[in-house]
Amino acid sequence: MRLYIVRHGKAERSSDSGRDQDRDLRARGHRQAEFIAESLAADEHVPGLIVTSRFNRAFDTARAIQHAVGCPLHTDPLLETDLPVSNAVTVVQRVATRGDVRALAIVGHNNQLTEFVAMLGSGHNDVDGHYLRTGEAAVFDVLDPDALPTAASATFRAFLRLDDGEGD
Prior knowledge:
Elements: E1 2-7, H1 27-42, E2 49-52, H2 56-69, E3 73-75, H3 85-98, E4 103-108, H4 112-120, E5 136-142, E6 154-161
Parallel strand pairs: 1-4, 2-3, 2-4
Antiparallel strand pairs: 1-5, 5-6
Helix pairs in contact: 1-2, 3-4
């Protein structure tokens, strides 16, 4: 199964409500989301399902992908902020055991997603020490969902991020 681990696009520092979950994407975040969406739509392994955090910035990033690839989108509280990497692993394993999804995109937050990428890509020069930035996706082929999140369970393929000349 192809796995896209997507960190939401660049978001506002705060929201009108003051709640973290209500932070919206900045204009740059929307451009990043569109870039990832177009990249995934052009891949030979187009996502058949997107699972995302319910937080605005992640959900809006996931919606951009959904519009580009036309697959179902589900929210899952296991992908929200300040949660352990084991929650993201649970989401992927749950989908993998269904057997009907050949490519999955999960959209969420750090540190959970950077830790997941680090575990899957351990020992791969392009992954070791890599911090998943806003608006970035890591692409893996999951070889053994039951062995997640070990490096032997997946093969690293690429990082995808809009290079628009702006800083992080």
